[in-house]
Design the sequence.
């Protein structure tokens, strides 16, 4: 991200986030959309939006965790631990935001925007490759054309 690019411009669902395994890609698209909604919302909307996001994040992480456990994905432990740490932070910040401490919510949103691309590129892409190899016999092929899909 260049200094001229704002967070709002940089965190838009695009083909740079596609990993090639539809269930993960779909939940990631929802993740990006919800974080973007929170990032652009007024403070008074944060408690509701962060609550919706917490529900999404739990389902999102549960899906990925189940895929890893059910298929005995080799590096699952650190991936599952990272999900648990992020979920713990979300719950802690949600409690503070519900008390009107919106700055904590803004900090969490900024951290999610920073964290997600790296997490997806490293941990989730390995899981997507694993799932495709198991079901299709090879890694997914993803063609990127720098398209904003929303």
Sequence:
């Amino acid at each position: 991200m260049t200094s001229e690019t704002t967070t709002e411009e940089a965190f838009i669902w695009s083909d740079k986030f596609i990993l090639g395994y539809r269930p993960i890609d779909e939940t990631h698209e929802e993740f990006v959309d919800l974080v973007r909604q929170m990032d652009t919302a007024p403070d008074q909307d944060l408690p509701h939006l962060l609550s919706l996001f917490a529900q999404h994040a739990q389902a999102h992480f549960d899906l990925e965790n189940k895929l890893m456990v059910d298929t005995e994905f080799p590096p699952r432990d650190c991936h599952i631990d990272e999900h648990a740490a992020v979920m713990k932070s979300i719950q802690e910040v949600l409690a503070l935001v519900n008390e009107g401490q919106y700055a904590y919510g803004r900090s969490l949103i900024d951290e999610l925007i920073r964290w997600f691309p790296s997490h997806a590129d490293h941990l989730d892409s390995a899981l997507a490759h694993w799932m495709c190899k198991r079901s299709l016999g090879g890694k997914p092929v993803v063609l990127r054309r720098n398209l904003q899909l929303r």
The chain is about 70% helix and 0% strand. The helical segments are 7-10, 22-40, 46-70, 76-98, 102-136.
